[in-house]
Amino acid sequence: MWTLVVETRAAATYQFGPFEVNAVSGELLKQGRRIKLQDQPFRLLIILLENAGQVVSREEIQNRIWQGNTFVDFDSGLRVAVRKLREALGDDVENPRYVETIPKRGYRFLGVVAQPADVRNQLPASEIPGTNAERVARSKRSQNWVFFVVLVLVSAGAAAFLFFIHAPRKLAAEDTVVLADFANSTGDPVFDGTLRQGMVVQLEQSPFLGLISEARIQQTLRLMGQPPDARLTPEIAREICERTGSAAVLEGSIAILGSQYVLGLRAKNCRTGDVLDEEQAQAVRKENVLDALSQIASKFRARVGESLTTVEKHDKPLAEATTPSLEALKAYGAAWQLQSSAGSAAVVPVFKRAVEIDPKFALAYAALGRMYADIGESDLSAESTSKAYDLRDRVSDRERFFISASFDLQVTGNMEKARQTCELWAQTYPRDTMPHAFLSGVVFPITANYEKGIEESNKAIALDPGFVVGYWNLAYSYEYLDRLGEAENTLQRAAERKLEIPDFLLQRYDIAFLKGDMAGMQQAAALGQGRSGAEEWIPDHEAFVLAYSGRLEQARSMSGRAEGLAQQAGHREQAALFEAGAALREAFFGNTPAAKQRASRALELSRDREVEYGAAFTLALAGDARRSEELASDLERRFPEDTSVRFSYLPALQARLALNDGQAAKAVELLQASVPYELGAPHSSMHGLFGALYPAYVRGEAYLAAHKGAEAAAEFQKIVDHRGIVVSDPIAALARLQLGRAYALSGDTAKGKSAYQDFLTLWKDADSDIPILKQAKREYAQLK
Q1: Which of 778, 764, 772 is nearest to 585 (CA)?
Q2: What pLDDT does residue 556 have?
Q3: How far apart are CA 53 and CA 132, in angstroms?
Q4: How many DSSP H helices and E strands does the chain contain?
């Protein structure tokens, strides 16, 4: 593959296309006819011609033309000068032939520039007009300036591109593209995978371009019989392009030319092989490679159909949008590639490596915070996300949306602000799946808007059928609504696309439990053995299910296993969360000493938000009002905006403490705050498996204490009717007993007996020494 490099230097006259410029007389001629051009645009043209093919920075232009003026005068004057210059040349800002805008950097002259004297010297003497003296003068002038063409044979493995002026073909707004791996002939492995990840970040800044996601690429590779980490050669990338119905495949390259690095990008129609566009840039040093990558990405975006307005608005240089470190960017890209198949827990160390290399890598901190959130490590998630938020000026506009939304999801907990950010994000980047994932996976479940969750999940899947999180969120939304068949179908759709993450095993286990499918539960548990991201979570789910039927001793053993595995993996917050869940079970079932002991143990491991809530509720049930109130105050102080804390945790805690003091009416009043979102799935239920519908449960207890049986029954019935939300939480079983008490109190003995029988049947194999079971049997025996 040959590369044509054209070099020009300052001259008195220039020729390009039909135009001729005389720098001395200040004339611009088109086919011999003078074109009127004011002084500043003309001087700008001369600067660009002197540096044809090179980016001329705004600072250099300011120093040459507007020296001494204010920045505001320069900024306004430059825009006017560029506009007038383009008008004079008949140039198009969207598809320039001569003057190209390099967003936030400067401008570049695209045309091939020659001197008229040089051209004449190539003609027979009889064809050169003018006197001998003129010819001699021109000949002398021509010797002062150099115009040369260097043909360089670049290594075929580098796949470098022919650099020439061409008319690129435009992509349509609905088109998608596949990015292949960069062909690296430099011998330096630091570029392997790194340049592709950098190009992904650059192209994802575009609201116009639709880049096929890593998850969908891996899914397609599996369908092709390829491993999910297969190298995306041009041939494999082209097949992926065809299979996904994409419009083009992008092939990148990096090679060494002398002492410089040459980067290229070629866009090809994946069905016909026609070249749609080619771009090239050079980097003097290794440290400048990311800048060169940014240049070709910006130029490509503008030349394939994106408006210059959006290119200029959403085009942060890669070193500023990510990191100037190639090593850190390489680790970051490797982590995202692994996450699609191995899950969040497996990639935490890789993202940590990225921020260790570059402690100011905002995007890596944001990703690390997201991974911690996925595995229930909320304090670590908040810490990493807060660092990303502090560094959010070092990212692109798209990633700033990601960080801002993550900050409210994982740090402040303000779901209303998160919703607003995600909706604006989706409007600005209509092809991005992540805002829909945040809305469907966190915002709408917490705020009890499960139908909207389904809608947003479907939007994400429609945008990217290989987006595994879309199926995960959709299955949960159906589960919350007790639409278990549709939840199973969703997981089956994901399996048919060969999409699999450890979290799907947990979903299958819970769905099987809700259906009473013991074989399905056993199968999911068996598949989770030894699998990162599921191995420690499955035993915790099993512990809750055992306790649901009163087999508390077995539940304790299973909880110990879950905690031990979490500790071995270095996940202290997970271990604390498991311990908090175990403490709650003991407290609900009347084992006060064990409940207090386990709550203390949980708090020793972590003061995570959900751990504190679980421990505080345990202590309230166990009668330790002082310590419970201290934890409630701490939650209120640390999380003043948090939706789960404000509308679920604190109302339930404060009402439970009021009940301990015999203030049933006050408890009901305190629980009014929880009404808007009380059917939601708070943070604690997403990972700790506890806390959903606790406000309804405590309100039911308050009505019982106030001798309002009918009102109490209505509250406990909410829990029975929403099994997909509470799943195996202790209150899912105890609500049946409480219904029996409520009906008995209201004088409906028949319904009361039936409810007691439901509970006692559920607990027919329960440990006989559980205090709540002994009490239930006594109460049932007294019913007539």
Answers
A1: 772
A2: 96
A3: 34
A4: 40, 14
Q: Which residue has the higher pLDDT, 681 or 84?
A: 681
How much of the chain is helix, strand and coil, in % rounded to 5? 60, 10, 30
Pairing of strands 210-211, 176-184: parallel
Amino acid of residue 36? K
Strands 99-102, 106-109: pairing kind:
antiparallel
- What's the CA gap between 239 and 232, in Å, rounded? 10
- Write the DSSP symbol of residue 77: H
Q: Would you state the CATH architecture of domain 609-782?
A: Alpha Horseshoe (1.25)
What are the backbone dihedrals phi and psi of residue 675, each rounded to the nearest 5 degrees, phi first?
Answer: -55, -45
Tokens of 232: 């995306």
Domain boundaries, the chain: 2-149, 157-321, 609-782
Task: Evaluate whether 779 touches 741 at the Cβ level (below 8 Å).
Answer: yes
Contact yes or no for 326/290 (Cβ under 8 A): yes
Q: How confident is the model at residue 115 (pLDDT cuts 50, 70, 90)?
A: low
Distance of CA 675 to CAs 447, 476, 594, 651, 726, Å? 11, 22, 32, 10, 17
Contact between 742 and 716 (Cβ < 8 Å): yes
pLDDT for res 454: 97
Considering only CA atoms, which of 447, 446, 443, 469 is closest in space to residue 458?
Answer: 469
Give me the long-range contacts of 740-744 (CB less than 8 A, separation at least 24): 740/776, 740/779, 740/780, 741/704, 741/712, 741/779, 742/700, 742/703, 742/704, 742/709, 742/710, 742/712, 742/713, 742/716, 743/709, 743/713, 744/709, 744/779, 744/783
Predicted confidence (pLDDT) at residue 430 exceeds the cutoff of 60: yes
What stretch of H or E contains 20?
strand 19-22
Work out the pLDDT band at 124, boundaries 50, 70, 90.
very low
H/E stretch holding 260 reads strand 260-269
Beta bridge partners of 266: 251, 278
What are the tens digits of pLDDT across the range 397-408? 888 999 999 999
- In 68-175 the beta strands, taken as DSSP E runs, fall at 99-102, 106-109, 148-153
Spatial CB neighbours of 516, under 8 Å, sequence gap ≥ 6: none
Which amino acid, one-letter code, is at 577? L
CATH class of 2-149: mainly alpha
CATH of domain 157-321: 3.40.50.10610
Q: To 10 degrees, the CA torsion angle through 369, 370, 371, 377?
A: 60
Q: Tell me, what's the pLDDT at 163?
A: 36
Tens digits of residue pLDDT in 65-94 = 876 544 445 677 788 888 889 888 888 887
Alpha-carbon distance of 635 to 612, in angstroms, equals 8
φ, ψ for residue 650, nearest 5 deg: -65, -45
Angstrom distance (rounded) from CA 619 to CA 593:
10
Percentage of the chain surpassing pLDDT 70?
90
